[in-house]
Design goal:
This protein folds into two domains: about 180 residues, Type I PLP-dependent aspartate aminotransferase-like (Major domain) (Aspartate Aminotransferase, domain 2, 3-Layer(aba) Sandwich), CATH 3.40.640; about 190 residues, Aspartate Aminotransferase, domain 1, CATH 3.90.1150. It has twelve helices and 15 strands. Helix 7 packs parallel to helix 11. The protein is globular, with a radius of gyration of 23 Å. The two termini are about 40 Å apart.
Length: about 400
Amino acid sequence: MDTNTVIFGKNATEAINKLAFRYPFCKGDMVLSTIMEHHSNDLPWRRRAQVLRAQVTNEGRLDEDDVDRLLAKYGDRITLVTVSGASNVTGFVQPIHSLARKAHAVGARILVDAAQLAPHRRIDIKSDNDPEHIDFVVLSAHKMYAPFGTGALVGRREIFLEGAPEYQGGGTVEIVTSEEVLWAGLPDREEAGSPNVIGAVAMAVAANALMDAGLESVERHESSLTAYALDRLRSLPEITIYGETDPRLIQDKVGVISFNLGSVPHALVAAVLGYEGGIGVRNGCFCAQQYVMRLLGLSESEQVRRRRELLAGDKSRKPGMVRVSFGAYNTIGDVDALMKMLQRITRNEYKGEYHQNAKSGEYIPAGYQNSTADYFSFGGQAVSRFSGECVPKTEDIWPALYPLPVENRI
């Protein structure tokens, strides 16, 4: 670690913001990014430099020709290339080492947002003198199966030894007088206040567990699940799958599949899967609105109309998709359970009567009540999970409220 350091923070978003704050930008410098990025790898750069965004192909893959065009056009004005290691929308894995070589050729460094990549693929940052060296890597603990609340930034020590840290106070200094401050060494100077020691240890344990299991084995397992899921999902009527749809062509894809189910709103699909199937999915734009709008094919005028509705407080027609994500723990049975519920949705055979909250865009089944008092109490007195006022046969309508077998969790 003579030339690199590891800085822990509360999450991957904070880690990217830290680098954006500490990176030595000069007037006129540019950051080359892509329209695929999570907002956490987009918004922080806007405050510090002009951001260029490479486009994607019709199926959603990074357009490397556009990357080459932008690098050739702006050359050494680009001081940093930043890219997600794997998309959290389509699962596409980026050619990070090829991009590193291209970035270094114009004198830029590269950051890989590996929040979505690290739990699924082995990452080799390579040696400092390798043209394909990854200068900065950002990791998210909870995506690596550790508890929430920890992120890590791995990168060049020299960047963080220049200037003062953005957060200052306890733990960041060696000497303080009324007139001067001597900052502590790394990583202490970048980790203000009491550190989340337990979070860092848990993250390290999770990383070791993944490596002990063998990330190559994890990759093979998740790829087989993804291929099986794509093969089955394609049989559903009116389904639209975003990204790669061919089970034979998923070598550069982690186990993320986003889709829409005909005219059924994405929020309703997610609600039925959760309340009636006990299947956890995400829906919406997944903090990657530019990319999702591109994949959905919405015209600029339609996007403007939807933005006006959102600004007026109406999220009932908010654009989006449904996303399933596979992890090392998922099984073929999980995919079969998902398919069973999606088939019920397409046949309009789900049990609940769902009503949408226009302010949130979410669908809730009629009669459903949810209170934190059903699960715990701050008063020290044990509280029953259920008040006894549930609608008859609640367990038939909302099994997500009850303990679930592992095979029903996606």
